Amino acid sequence: MLTDLGLDALWEYRSAYEAPPDFDEFWTSTLAEARAHDIGVRCTPVDTPLRTLDVFDVTFAGFGGHPQRAWLRLPRGSEEPLPAIVQFHGYGGSRGSALQELTWASAGYAHLQVDVRGQGGVTPDPVGSGPAYPGHLTRGIESRETYVYRRIFTDAARAVDAARALPGVDPARVAVLGNSQGGGIALAVAGLVPDVAALHAQAPFLCDFRRASLIGGERPYVELSRYLADHRDAVSRVFEVLSYFDGVGFAARATAPAWFSAGLMDGIVPPSTVFGAYRVYKGQKQLAVWEYNGHDAGGADDVQAVLEGFQPIMRPQGS
After folding, report:
1. What are the backbone angles phi and psi of residue 135, rounded to the nearest 5°?
2. Distances (CA, A) of 41 to 37, 64, 275
């Protein structure tokens, strides 16, 4: 069943979100602080039974210089500088096993799969937070400086820096992608790192927070609405903080060619929040709409379309 507006209304929908006047200044200073730390990329080979790919356990410096972890998968025997994919995972998840997510390296890309700090993987978040509803969405929400996604988005931008520092990677051909939380993080990176080559945001979470908090009936957005039910006097402050982290704000600043997707039966990410970000996206863009799908959106069909769409963008110049 539909979880949001009908399709015609979705195409007409415009988010009420407005970026704060110092949005860009806040993020410029945040990234400058992070980049004061050497990126410090370290790659440790991982022994796997894979015959066509090489896998490395990667560490690099994120927000505050904190060590961040990722898998790097490379096509075995590759010689020329490779295009790279930086991928972010879904809410509460992890980078998973070294033997998962083999598509991008199998297609000829260097594939850096980032482990989001403080969630289900191996990367800790050494920064504490005040009271929060169980989950991640309201951690540190007292201020823009302490909000957890300040650290996560900064880590993600630094992951692009790390990919560009890898031997054998063409730094001009680095794209970002993810599903759900991963799509929201990738969208933020496209707004923060203006020269990424391409973006794929599949059912992106973290967009149009105010609307999502009112109509999103499942986790994670329900974490926000339940936090506000307990902190009735904090509504204005919370949405002021979230205005610095809303995917609609990043979309209005991103210029890389972009592929979005949404399922109209998505109960986790309301489709209108995806349309809100898509409408203001500054670069070349397309949105795949799946009428009878939920949070999986187009699944493998999305991946196939993006593999095909990325090919001309990610070729070496002059080829």
Report:
1. 125, -160
2. 11, 15, 36
Mean pLDDT, consecutive 10-residue stretches, the chain (319 aa), reads 93 98 98 98 98 98 98 94 98 97 98 97 91 92 98 98 97 98 98 98 98 95 97 97 98 98 97 98 98 97 98 79
Cβ-contact 208, 277 below 8 angstroms: yes
What is the C-alpha to C-alpha distance for residues 212 and 220, in angstroms, rounded to an integer? 10
- Where do the DSSP E strands lie in 76-228? 82-88, 110-114, 169-179, 199-202
* Token couple for 145: 């400086």
Cα–Cα distance between 168 and 77 in angstroms, integer?
Answer: 11
Which letter, b or e, does each residue of 113-151 get, where b requires 16 or more Cβ atoms within 10 Å of its Cβ? bbbbbbbbbebebebebeebbebbbbbbbbebebbbbbb
Q: What pTM was estimated for this model as a whole?
A: 0.98
Is residue 175 within 8 A of residue 197, CB to CB? The reply is yes
Q: Which residues are catalytic?
A: 180, 266, 295
